[in-house]
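HUMAN: You are asked to prepare a plain-text protein record giving the amino acid sequence and the backbone structure tokens, both parts labelled.

ASSISTANT:
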Amino acid sequence: MTTESADPETRYTITARVLHWTMALLVLAMLFIGVFMVTSINDFHLLVTIHEPLGFAILALVLVRIGWRLTHTPPPLPTGIPRLERLAAMYSERLIYLLLLLQPLFGWALVSASGQPVVLFGSWNLPAIAPMNITLFAVLLRAHEVTAYVLYALFLAHLAGILWNTLVIRNRILHRMTFRPRLKPAARDCTVNGVTPDQGRTPDERRDRLR
């Protein structure tokens, strides 16, 4: 099976990669904190003090990332990916952006509806964006929970797709978002089942090939 190496032109910019992995770590931390908030009563208040500023940080970062995405063309997907998979990747990416934008807004609004301030640091609070209302609070809480479950599912599907393409199809799609050094020109040739043209050659044959 012929696969395509990740040349510099097929990789995301360094800014996009930093934003991607920073947000991935923050969102994973937020999701796990959310689970612990539901199951751990003793540490609830401590977790809230982490959860609220972390959610605001995610909201700020997702706005930056959406702005960067709209002004920078992403690298093309590796050749050989079926059309349906390309469409699924495109629309799932958009859905993830949308949910990452809505999730912290739902959280901010539900805290406002509860009558409590969203505390960032010390006495620095965010303004309320929803009126105090117990019914509205219940609706926003449910929306916050459902959005979290959908994000879990999307992240698992995203991870499964990356692992499938990386370990089975072997089209180096993961390399588009990693920080590995750029490959030298001689190492960017196409591979067959992960075997480069130089494998199996003697040192003299390799030197002759590079001349």
